[in-house]
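Hello forum,

I keep getting stuck at the same step: I have a sequence, I want structure tokens, and every attempt I make locally crashes halfway through. Rather than fight my setup again tonight, could one of you with a working pipeline run this one for me? It's a single chain of 204 residues.
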Amino acid sequence: MMKDKSIDELIEILETSTNERTRRVAAYSLGQIAIKGDERAISALVKLLETTTNEETCWQAAYNLGKIATKGNEKAISELVRILETTKNKDIRDKALNSLGQIARDNTTAIKALIKLLSTSSTFLLDEFYRQLEQTQDKAVALQNAQNWLRTCTADKLRQRANEWDLSRIEWEDRIALDATLELWEDIPFKNPYYWAPFILTGC
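Reply #2:
Ran it on my machine without issues. Output:
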């Protein structure tokens, strides 16, 4: 009963406070005491993500959704996907990715969003792989070098690489989508092993 009262009080703080530090601390505390599947806490964190412009608060809310939301919770998944597709902050994007990995492994909406990200990272990885292969005939070395390049490559360098591609054959809608994705990136977009670690060579 005391825990329920504490949760209600924390939710009220999230909904009424205008102080971002206070809201962030409340979000953290909510993640510590709310049990898995608590719909009140999940709704409060989703609403916090919808309303906050503070990056630290957003990170905390995204992290706690991964802890509290049960697998397949559509409300939490939808908001995490929105954050994944719109944020420019790589730490928030990584945290949204991690949370989605915990609650949305079989969710179609999440899978489509992740495929969009993965297809972009795959394009860059393959481009660098074939460039490396021109310098060494060892495919394993070429892949390792390409992975190292992708996980350390800055957003500016990726944009420069994309500008070297011949995009005349792709559909205009896909070109617009690519341009929009490139604009979102900051720092090192593909540092997370999620983007490059799954690639392996077979039959080489």
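DSSP finds ten helices and no strands in the chain. If your local run keeps crashing, start a new thread with the error log.
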